[in-house]
Amino acid sequence: MKRWGRSLQIAFTFIGTVVGAGFATGREVMQFFTRFGHWGGLMIAASTILFVWLGAKMMLLAADLKMRSYEDLNKHLFGDRMGTWVSHLMLIVLLGVNAVMLAGAGSIFSEHLSLSYQTGLLFTMFVCFLLLRKGMNAILTVNTIVVPVMIAFTAVLVVHTLQAPGSDRWLSLETDQSPWAAWMSPFLYAAFNLSMAQAVLVPLGASVADPVVLRRGAWLGGLGIGAMLLAGHVTLSSRMPGVQQFDIPMGGIAREVGPWVHYIYVFLIFMEIFTTLVADIYGLTLQLQERLNVSKAWLTFGVLMFCFAAGQFGFGPLLSTLYPLFGMLSLGWMLLIGRDRKLRPRSPS
């Protein structure tokens, strides 16, 4: 039972790391799946397979080779020299992703809580700085609480959608997007999210080091991500195309159910954004500490200030511009980890 509990912690951390600003708000699901209409369900299935397979492989590699950070993984995949350059690129990408997360928190405050965008940025930065002083155990604990509640409330929105007209539109929704763009989308989505998740999954795999626990956690986490993607896709498809006007489309849908559900769901969206931001900054500061002779507290402060400056561009423009670009940059990384023959993850024991 203790090993199952640890597997669930890993699964929830996997889900919480991927279900960040874009996913929880619905913008990411819209960008990569829902806008492609009836193809979205099959694309989500393809993404789920990639999450299970490569998520397990990444953590097992980290455990087997005792990797301290994602730079060790990149050196293993690309060689020492190229791996160092890839890690430099990942630092830049992670900074951009963290800026998107922080901007998503600001959008929640401005769009749903009648507070200013800047208030959302500053509040999130402050709480993030405090929690990061607690390390990996704090990240595991927060995700173990937030992710199950987020899954439950996502289920509430899906049930509400299934009782309304148009609940089956995800099976017939037309699109004018090209088939090439549609079938590249799950690979871009999985590549981007897995390459970002390595900042957390590599040190997590090394610290747990139990292959059965890691493999089981990857299966539970990958399938959970797929289920949440499909739930979001079904919910958003029933409101297309009008739902595209919102920065936080899932929050707009939650408002239809009732004020209490709306505010609780908005809080959960914020917490999902927050947990991903904390996890990514944790991995980023670990990597920066290997390069710079600066205390962890000052590195965390510096990263948060950079994200605050970049967050001034706004959540929607940052996500729609940066995420597809980062997905393309991550495809080579995903191909190499998929071809790596050091370990071949099996079904969970």
Textual characterization of the structure:
- This protein is an all-alpha fold and 349 residues long.
- 79% of the residues lie in helices and 0% in strands.
- Helix 5 crosses helix 6, helix 8 runs antiparallel to helix 12 (259-289) and helix 11 (249-257) runs antiparallel to helix 12 (259-289).
- The model has no long low-confidence stretch (mean pLDDT 80).
Describe the largest sheet: none
Strand portion: under 5%
CATH homologous superfamily classification: Amino acid/polyamine transporter I
Count of extended strands: 0
Number of domains: 1
Q: What is the share of helical residues? A: over 70%
CATH class equals: Mainly Alpha
| Level-2 CATH architecture | Up-down Bundle
State the distance separating the first and last CA atoms.
13 Å
- Which structural class is indicated by helix and strand composition? mainly alpha
Instruction: Supply the number of helical segments.
Output: 14
> What string, H for helix and E for strand, traces the elements in order?
HHHHHHHHHHHHHH
Look up the CATH topology: Amino acid/polyamine transporter I
Summarize model confidence as the mean pLDDT: 80
Please state the CA-atom Rg, rounded to the nearest Å.
19 Å
Shape: globular
Query: What are the segments in which pLDDT stays under 50 over at least 5 consecutive residues?
Result: none
Keywords: Membrane, Transmembrane, Transmembrane helix
Protein name: Membrane protein YkvI
InterPro entries: YkvI-like
Organism: Cohnella xylanilytica
